[in-house]
Design brief:
Layout: E1 10-13, H1 19-22, E2 27-29, E3 33-37, E4 45-49, E5 55-61, E6 67-73, H2 81-97, E7 108-113, E8 122-127, E9 130-135, H3 138-142, H4 144-155, E10 161-164, H5 167-172, E11 181-185, E12 192-195, E13 198-201, H6 217-226, E14 231-235, H7 241-248, E15 253-258, H8 261-273, E16 281-285, H9 288-293, E17 302-305, H10 317-334, E18 339-345, H11 352-366, E19 369-377, E20 395-402
Helix pairs in contact: 2-4, 6-7, 10-11
Bound molecules: S-adenosyl-L-homocysteine.
S-adenosyl-L-homocysteine is lined by residues 213, 216, 236-239, 241-242, 258-260, 263, 287-288, 306-308.
Amino acid sequence: MTTTTTSLSTVTLKAKRDQSIRRKHPWIFSGGVKHIQGDPQAGDLVKVCANKGRTLGWGHYAPNASIAVRMLSFDESSPDDSWWHSQIAQAVAVRRDLNLFQSDGQNACRLVHAEGDGLPGLIADLYNGILVIQCHTPGMHRTLPTLTVAFREALGECLVGIYDKSAKTLLKNGGQASDDGWIWGNAPKEHCATEYGHQFDIDWEQGQKTGFFLDQRENRSLLGTLSQGKKVLNVFSYTGGFSIYALKAGAMEVHSLDSSQRALEVCEKNVRLNGLSEDCHKSIRADALEYLKTDTLGEYDIVVLDPPAFAKRASARHAAIQGYKRINLRALQGMKSGSLLFTFSCSQAVDDAMFTNTIVAAAIQAGRTVRILHRLHQPPDHPVNAFHPEGSYLKGLVVRVDE
Ligand code: SAH
């Protein structure tokens, strides 16, 4: 029995357009579709066949979108309840084996990372027993009742509540607006999660994405190892992930800069939650580029630049690269000799080589000598499906800036 729909629509691909699907790449572009049998609606489960009729698998359909089908299974038979349960059980087992959510000092991680876990359109982040789900496709959203049972089964007592935060992401992807809210369990009094012993207040209701950026965990940890006695500027700080690691590791002073007053308020709350001295921390509400133009940059030993995605799609790539170059040029022009720059891009459309070249171009223009000390990526709870290299979205460099 299929759990998402009873539709029997079939999407048949043009000749030779099945090659990437045979390699288990999960996207079918509308240009590769030869014809559609039936009248599938947004989010319906469809069968996908090769030109000569062989079944290639099953996926969620999206009309009027460049990606017409996001593949779920590559089997003859359609995904049933046991298929969904097995996918969720596997995703949970990966994080359990990584020790990411079952200890006092570490109870927050991403449990499902869309294509990276074979579940395109589904993001699920766990914060101390609260699972925050963001569906990016109507098909995934319709599957929530099955997913709820599967998560409860896989997580057992580790799960306290499930919050659906899909309203905005669904609207952007051709779905109906549904209200965000609890789909299982209750709202806890405390919104606090622990990451490597650091406490964070997570505002999944009003905050950005699912409330926190779990993808920077390992990179924040690296910053901690380099921060003792240092003066740190955290640009695009959001709720202060990098700031808290630096302060806890003994930074002399940390400045968190963001344009969002709300994010800075949560950041200050996080400073208090961790028992850190407020005298060592300052919030700066400003536009990043404007602040980077001021002559204060020379005061800092370490600068972190972690902007939002500048390119949401490939067509915006050129403008995004200009944006990355602009902020990094400003930073490199103003930073003192011997300082460190942690610089990131979370744009899927900008790959590692493009990002590195952009930083090198900024360094040449700034006339600075830079050494690349670390190349950084997303952590293992944001896995990359080997057949879908596009999933490797977070890239960063730690560079030492000299003369
Ligand atoms: N580094 C953060 C995540 C950054 S998310 C962490 O580890 O949690 C990007 C942040 O950039 C958001 O908080 C957003 O409010 C902020 N932002 C976006 N445009 C900005 C601008 N022009 N100037 C300053 N902050 C900006």
